[in-house]
Amino acid sequence: MQGGMLVTRYTTDIWRLRYFWLALVQIDVKKRYRRSMIGVGWSLLHPIAMTVVLCTVFGQLFNLSVRDYAPHVISGLIFWNYFAAVMNQGAQCFFQGESYIRQQPAPLAIYPLRTTLGAGIHFLVGLLIVLIFVWTLHGFGNLPALLSLAPTLILIFIFGWAMAICMGVVNVLFQDCQHLIEVFLQILFYVTPIIYPAEKLRERHLDMFVNLNPLAMMLEMLRQPILNGQLPSIETYFYGVLAVSVAACFAIFTLMRFERRIIFYL
Q1: What is the pLDDT of residues 30-51, one digit of tens each?
Q2: 167 close to 254: Cβ distance less than 8 angstroms
Q3: Average confidence score pLDDT of the chain
Q4: Is 11 inside any structural domain?
Q5: Rounded to two decimals, what is the model's pTM?
Q6: How many domains does the chain have?
């Protein structure tokens, strides 16, 4: 009961400072695209270019039609860019906000939140591009199933925020972790069905990389309504919610344990 009250009070404090962290997100976006002619379009150039290359190479390798493979790849890359940004930038979020942390007492979770919202903006823009791409190729048959994206996006956001918190705390305590995160992301990219269908892993009895991978579950929840016009299965939702809950609990525990001590490591 007491722990629940602490979490509620902490969340209330974050909401009370919403104009502060929203201003930080706005500053980050403006700073990133200052003097840029196409602005946020630059964040879409990488997944679009990679989709063209991967369709040219892997489309033939896996014997898949470009019409089906291209939406699969670009949706995976858009999601991966969000997750990689949350991990990499989350690891630096407390160093980035050091001046603010020293000036005023505020919940430290707002700095990973700042990172997650910034990455989330680009993710939503990229998702809109994916939808337009799918509608152009396959029509509007997926519209009813798109309603399921609302809970999926909430889960993806909470998961990203939790991971940003964990990466931020760990990197403050052990600053070499930034380099380990980069290595971990490279490995995770290839064991997650981003550039190839999950069925290819199952055919080779590598189900564990799908069944035990929370990113694979979230990709399934994202791709099913967009690409196939179908609702994700109850089992997929269950394991997705379970993965997000574990990540959120771990993030809360990490903050409760180290929040007051982080300032001494900055």
Answers
A1: 887 776 656 666 667 778 888 8
A2: no
A3: 86
A4: no
A5: 0.91
A6: 1
